[in-house]
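Incident review: delayed structure delivery

Summary: a single-chain prediction request sat in the queue longer than the usual turnaround. Root cause was a stuck worker, restarted by the on-call engineer. No data loss occurred. The affected request and its eventual output are reproduced below so the record is complete for anyone auditing the incident later.

Affected input:
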Amino acid sequence: MEKEELLESFFSLEGAIQIALDNYYQFLSNIKGKKLPHNKKTIEYSSEHSEMNFDAFAKNENVAVFFHTNHTKYAIETSDVPLHNHDFYEINYIYRGSVTNQLNDQTIHQDINKILLMNPYAYHSPRVDTPDTILFNILIRKNFTAEILSDLSYQDSNLMNLFLSGSLGMSPIQPYLVFDNTPRINFLLQEMIREFYNKKPYYQQILYSKLMELWSMFARQKEEKNAAKKGQYPSDINEILNYIQHHCGSVSLEEISKKFGFSVSHLSRYINKYTGYKFNEILHQFKMQNAVNYLTHSNLTIPEITEIVGYSDVSYFRKVFKKEFGISPNAYRNQSKQ
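Output delivered after worker restart:
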């Protein structure tokens, strides 16, 4: 092989695309429960807002790659995908073209320069912008992600909030993050995709090590951007948010006003100005984050969690939680242990 060909194969995914297509069609055949006819190789969707929990992983796989063909030239039939979520974590990597991804609260336009990272509670509906777009979804089992992010070095990062809690709504406690696709990250993602489709011995172990490196690159990028933004905001706004987070079970606007030297009305406007959210909205999200963490990582009863996160009535807590996540606290706990 010439040097130019070697370099092209090393930095290109062209050789993996046909394998990806074959895997994709076989996957569709499997989830249909029968062999698909030659001219029928797509999933039919019906729900407008659904949870799509198909088995995307082979036995003993914790990391998988899925090739998105809907509305591309690689699809024989296409259909509109409704807002949906999964029971695994997802990294959207665009090798060619661009995608418009409709999320619960906004629309994200993603091209080859951006990486979209989502946890299981991110409702989304991707639509390719051009038929030659190539979108790879890197999928990670939920319980495996919790294991690799339990390392102490991640505990103060936004990635820990994103992946070890199911919080929705406000930034930074939200079910998705967008990263710049740097040359190093791009190269790492392409290595992971090739490794997955080649399926040589110990490919999962190699994917685990690359995933840890990828997570670290994401965490570094996030922290560098946060550090650059610090000068744009008053230093006490972070202190106020941290105080709310650590005392969300009992804190009040009056208490925070006294501690930080604001009037109640001025503090309310101050928080809204720099976060875009009202105090009660922020307090609610922190309570939901705490509830999710206790449900996922403790054996506390629902009444005990209700009291810790700051609710006096268990029935009301159940109602609020179900409105936020669409399922009851007990169902959430059971789902997180699957």
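Verification: Confidence is low (pLDDT under 50) at residues 1-10, 34-51, 150-173.
Action items: add queue-age alerting; document worker restart procedure.
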